[in-house]
Write a structure and sequence with these properties.
Elements lengths: L5 H14 L2 H12 L6 H15 L3 H15 L3 H5 L3 H9 L3 H18 L1
Helix pairs in contact: 1-4, 1-7
């Protein structure tokens, strides 16, 4: 896996905007700021599952494959045909703090555009 880059914020922001999950993003933001102790891994997986549940158009689906393929340095088609448990493993093998910080940046970027 390559490290997450600034350009990835724009890619993910476009995906989330197309998936129309602004309310869900606000809920995650409120939880993160509430001060309650959160299991970063569990919240991260929940966030990813929320995005996937909302990614019901082919365009968004293809963009997710392309984004994950780029980040994990795997062809988008390989991601598309991968077992779900393997995709979860890919995330678990990474620095989850980096992903958390990344999604916080994405949320801030989206809020600034609202």
């Amino acid at each position: 896996m390559r490290g997450l880059e600034f350009q990835d914020i724009f890619s993910m922001s476009r995906i989330l905007a197309k998936a129309e999950i602004n309310k869900e993003i606000e809920n995650f933001t409120k939880r993160a700021r509430s001060g309650e102790k959160l299991d970063t891994e569990a919240v991260g997986i929940e966030f990813i599952m929320t995005v996937l549940a909302k990614a019901t158009t082919r365009d968004v689906e293809k963009e997710i494959y392309a984004f994950l393929g780029d980040v994990f340095e795997i062809k988008p088609e390989e991601i598309r045909h991968m077992k779900p448990a393997k995709v979860v493993e890919l995330f678990k093998e990474t620095d989850l703090t980096e992903w958390k910080d990344f999604f916080i940046s994405v949320v801030r970027f989206l809020k600034a555009q609202s």
